[in-house]
Design a protein that fits this description.
Blueprint: H1 3-16, H2 24-40, H3 45-60, H4 62-65, H5 70-85, E1 101-106, H6 113-126, E2 131-136, H7 143-154, E3 158-159, H8 170-184, E4 188-193, H9 201-214, E5 218-224, H10 229-241, E6 246-250, H11 259-268, E7 272-276, E8 284-286, H12 289-296
Parallel strand pairs: 1-4, 1-5, 2-3, 2-4, 5-6, 6-7
Antiparallel strand pairs: 7-8
Bound molecules: guanosine-5'-diphosphate.
């Protein structure tokens, strides 16, 4: 991810190297190249416009035009603006003050929710937490089983409806899971919800019903960064239909151009909290905007 964008930006900065003061034409040419690089990386147009506008304005300021090394100054500005569009500070998980912390996952089918649920459980376990996974995806026949397999891989128990015991609907399962967590002293409850192939109102309603029933401390929207511009549209649809506190980007190990990862925080106003970057259970961590920006400008 970001390989093309990184190369493009590096070329842009190379053109500035060795230049003394920057002329208006130099700044315009640089802004144009940054604009093309971002558009080619699939960054959403409003985000590109804002980004380039900010870089241009700052580049015209004293700090750059008077600087001995304008190229370095521009790189610094682009870095800082990248951190800004990526959401600024690292967003950390908020834990409940009393009782178990409830985390609900929402997103499209195939986004990587079930995998993510187990990765998050492992990550929490490594920090001394005692999570429980909850199978509230009762749409896809294999989803419960898949969560159980993933839970087994990370050694975290899975709460799932047992056939015939009366908790067959996702809202009841989610509600019952909180009681189970309290009984068995689990301090974090991770609820996996159903995802459809496309955004649909029934799915949204189900997720909203679960949210209303369990009042999660964090609703996380899980999205596949490989789906490009669609990720931003889906993110907006879930924001309107379900609402969430933060975003989790999956499949950052892929060769997508990176636009989704770059635009999503800026377009939705919600921070990216976690990133998932591989099939292994340990391919997962908090998302750090500053590290991501540095990686792009490496
Ligand atoms: P769900 O339908 O949202 O629950 O998605 P799944 O968890 O079943 O994931 C869909 C597919 O994406 C599976 O084949 C996962 O192994 C794969 N997957 C999930 N996360 C990642 C990731 O970060 N990187 C890669 N390369 N594959 C992933």
């Amino acid at each position: 991810m970001f390989a093309t964008l990184s190369d493009r930006l590096a070329d842009t900065f190379k053109n500035l190297r060795g230049k003394g003061r920057l002329s208006e034409a130099d700044i315009d040419a640089t802004a144009r190249e940054i604009r093309i690089a971002l558009l080619e990386a699939d960054v959403a147009l409003p985000v590109v416009k804002e980004f380039v506008g900010a870089v241009k304005e700052r580049a015209r300021s004293e700090e750059v035009s008077q600087a001995l090394n304008p190229a370095q100054q521009i790189v610094k500005i682009v870095n800082e603006e990248l951190v800004t569009i990526l959401g600024g500070e690292t967003r950390r998980l908020r834990y409940a003050k009393t009782g178990p912390t409830v985390i609900m996952l929402a997103g499209l089918q195939g986004a990587g929710k079930t995998t993510l649920a187990a990765k998050l459980a492992l990550w929490l376990k490594e920090q001394g937490k005692t999570p429980i996974l909850v199978a509230a995806d009762l749409q896809r026949p294999n989803a419960v089983n898949q969560l159980q397999v993933n839970g087994g891989r990370v050694g975290v128990p899975v709460f799932a409806p047992e056939p015939g015991n009366g908790v067959g609907d996702p809202v009841s399962v989610a509600r019952a899971s909180i009681e189970e967590a309290k009984r068995k002293l689990h301090d974090v409850v991770i609820i996996d919800t159903a995802g459809r192939l496309g955004v649909d109102t029934e799915l949204m309603k189900q997720a909203a019903d679960i949210r209303d029933a369990v009042q999660p401390d964090e609703v996380l929207f899980v999205v596949d960064a490989m789906i490009g511009q669609d990720a931003v549209n889906t993110a907006q649809a879930f924001l309107d239909g379900v609402g969430y506190d933060a975003v989790v980007l999956t499949k950052l190990d892929g060769d997508a151009r990176g636009g989704a990862a770059l635009s999503i925080a800026s377009v939705t106003g919600k921070p990216v909290m976690f990133a998932s970057n591989g099939e292994k259970m340990t391919d997962f961590d908090l998302f750090h905007p500053d590290r991501m920006a540095s990686r792009i400008l490496d």
